[in-house]
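re: ur question from yesterday

yeah so i grabbed the chain u mentioned. its 260 aa long if i counted rite. heres the sequnce exactly as i have it in my notes:
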Amino acid sequence: MILSDEVVVITGVGPGLGAKLAARAAAEGAKVVMAARSTDVMDRVGKEVAEAGGHAVGVACDVRRPEDVQRVVATAVERFGTVTGLVNSAFGHPGFADLVDTPEKAVRRSMDIIVHGALAMTRAVVPHMKAAGRGSIVNIGTMATRRPARGEAGYALTKAAMSCASKYLAVELGGHGIRVNEATPGWMDGPGVRLYLSMTAAQRGITEQQVYDEIAADLALGRIPTDEACTGPILFLLSRYASEVTGAVLDVNGGGYMPL
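ran it thru and got these structure tokens back, copy pasting raw so excuse formatting
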């Protein structure tokens, strides 16, 4: 198990990537602390992990609230002794619109969740990682920063800021044995994409499979990666197999983007 002896905090645990990631991290030996505003998914995942013999606990948390962030980390330390891994995947989309038409309040909310929330969690876990002599932080990016698509500007703006922060944190924390990387998914075949397929098919009068095939045709692997399949690269970055990897961006998108 590649995450044995690791204590991993995962933010933004919802029904898609977050839930799959928490379950797989626990299956790989990690003691997992889940954080999200809603506890329904975390309760289900925690029960499934416990039944499989693993360890996972959920904590209600809005990453914009300092007291919530501190409660998440305090729970990790009280239950498992320390924190050695962090996945910042808390999500806040400002809505699909041109940037000049996106309400300032919506952009600020997204920035507060994605950037300032990630920084708050990072600040809270770093002292424990320093004490442990190691740590891995994985920030979840988006293909919207790689391939601009109209309507995604407000969201991409906040994720681009997080990406920049990742590189600076990698430089600043590397001397303490703390690695900081970014995993950048694109289309992920989970609840969100399934809703998109259904809505688009209805609007265009075609089948969901036809919409799927159009998307998949633009990906080198010819398929949309599932939520669960996208967890593997994130677990790799968390693990000691990636001990020499920091400041990197790992594209997890089926070949939808290939930087030179």
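noticed a couple things. The CA atoms of residues 172 and 178 lie 9 Å apart. also DSSP finds eight helices and seven strands in the chain.
anyway ttyl
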